[in-house]
Amino acid sequence: MRRALLLAGGLAVALAGAVAAHDFWLVPEFFQVPEGWQLHVAGQTGMEFPESESAVSLDRLADAKLVSASETVPIGRKAQLGRSLWLEARPTGPGEWWVAVALHPRPIHLTAEQFNDYLAHEGLPHILAERKAQGLAGRDADERYTKFAKALVRVGTAGATVFDRPLGHAIEFVPLNEPLELQAGDEIAARLLFRGRPLPGVAVFAGRAGAGAGPTAQATTDGDGVARFALYVSGYWYLKAIHMLPAAPDSGFDYESWWATLTFEVAAAPEPAAN
Questions:
Q1: How distant, in Å, are the alpha carbons of 2, 34, 152, 201 from that of 181?
Q2: pTM for the whole structure
Q3: Domain residue extents for the chain
Q4: Is the CB of residue 245 less than 8 Å from the CB of residue 236?
Q5: What does the pLDDT look like over 153-206, one tens digit per residue?
Q6: How do beta strands 141-155 and 255-266 pair?
C-alpha cells in the first residue's frame, strides 16, 4: 500500500457520539521488509481504516517502540505529517518486531445522547444497560480513555518470532497464530489481555482496508479471552476492542476506558495448481 494512501484523509460516516469513536491504528508502509530497511509507520486516527482524519499530537505519545525477541528499541523519529502521525525506526537485526505505541490518557465530556450512542455502537451494551438500570441514561458522562496500538513486521527472512509475546500494555491483543503467515481464507485467533490477564466477554471487531467506515465482523472473547475471525480476502486488516469500567469515585470521571488495536496483512491465497 502506497504511502500516499496511508496519509490520505477520508470523510467518514458521522454518527452521534463519533467524537469518542475514532480508532487509532498503526499502519506500516510494508509488513515485511529486507534487513537494513528503515521502517515507516503511520499512526492513523479515524473511522475508515486505514485512512486518517487527524494526526495525533506528539505530546500525546506516552511510549513508542520496536520490540524483538531480544531487545527493545525506542522510536526516536516522530512527526506530524499531514493527517498522520509518522514514525521512523530502523530495526537492528532480522526477525519479527512489534511496533507498539501507547498514548497518554485523555478526558472527554459527552452528552447523555452521545454517550449512550457510543456505548451502543462500540460493543459496550452492558454499560448502557447498567446506566439504564441505575437511572443514569439521561445524564451526561465524563470519561477518561487511553489508547494502545500494535503492528507486527518481519525483517529479513530469518530470526526469532515474537508474535505471541505480550508487551505489557494495559490492554493488548496477543495473536495465537502467526499473523505474518495468514492468507485469504485463514482464521486469526487472538487473546485480549487486560493488565496481563485474559479478558472474557468483551466485544472484538475486525475490519479491513477498502470496506468503508466501520468494522466488517464482530465476536465476543471466550472464557480464555480469545476471539476468532475468518479472513475472507487479502489486504490490510485490524482488530479492535474497548474495555470500560466505572471510574474510581475520587477520579473526577464517571467511566474509564482502554482501547486496543492490532493491524496485520493477509496475503492472497495461492492459485490452484493447473491439471
A1: 21, 17, 11, 28
A2: 0.90
A3: 3-165+245-266
A4: no
A5: 999 999 999 999 999 999 999 999 999 999 999 999 999 999 999 999 999 999
A6: parallel
